[in-house]
Amino acid sequence: MKKIFILITVLFFNFSFSQYASGSFIVLNEGMEEDYLMTEKLWQVYHQKSVKDGHKNHWSIWKVDVTNYEDKIEEDRFPDYFILEGYNTLEDLTAESERFSPEGFEEISNYIKSKMKGKMSSRAIDKILSKSVRKETRMYHHQFLAATPFTGGGLKVGDKMTIAPMQQLQDDYEDFETNFYKDLFNERVMNGDHRWWGFSKVINRNDNALTISTHTAWNMFIDGKELKWPEDFTSRKIMEITPQARKMYNPIQLTLVYVAD
Predict the structure, then answer these.
(1) 7: three-class secondary structure by DSSP
(2) Cα–Cα distance, 213 to 201 (Å, whole number)
(3) pTM (2 decimals)?
(4) Phi and psi (nearest 5°) for 148?
(5) How many C-beta atoms surround the C-beta of residue 147 within 10 A?
(6) Engineered SS bond to 260: which of 59, 154, 158, 181, CB 3.0-4.6 Å?
(7) Is 158 helix (H, G, I), strand (E, B) or coil?
(8) What fold characterizes domain 2-30+58-89+136-260?
(9) How many whole angstroms separate alpha carbon 28 and alpha carbon 133?
(10) At residue 7, what are phi and psi to the nearest 5 degrees?
């Protein structure tokens, strides 16, 4: 069993090493989706370098399925995309944010132009990057408190992920996730019934961000594998009292569009 576990850990997705993450929900201006995707395709060039340079260990863009989105949010604030970035330390996250100053943006823009030379003109790149594609950005900084191994190889375009916003109701809520649900999902991952599970705490958010959630549960399921809950007495009792410790909002379904890791 120990050898099997070591083999699985080799297949960890880079983000599973992240202690901190930045997650941003993007609401687009009407009719700007194609322009937004072109913008992110150019930014991917920079983020690949950022990962290579060790400034972050992951960057990805996910399409949001709003069919099950939380009904407490106004429809015109439903997000179109989700940006996820993973970092080893909080200092790395802060340093990367500071690179997006006006001077830093010019340096990044020049790098993108140099990498796209012969494929796209500098004027075309400036035109794309200058477009006002976003109506709103809701950014959250997360600290990961627990996670399982990430199996199934690296991320691929089209992969699905589910994130469930949680609101803490009791002081000991984190213990439920880190001492019970982590073991539950870890066993599923080890048995090949689940791809990845993570649990994070929101430690910062921008002014536009909603304040209803304090934590997030992250899941990547495997097609054809049903989520079965344990039926022993202790597990049943813990699951029965979990809703007293936290409120779970509707899970948000995501589909991978771009990735750099």
Answers:
(1) helix
(2) 9
(3) 0.91
(4) -90, 170
(5) 23
(6) 59
(7) coil
(8) Alpha-Beta Plaits (3.30.70)
(9) 6
(10) -65, -40
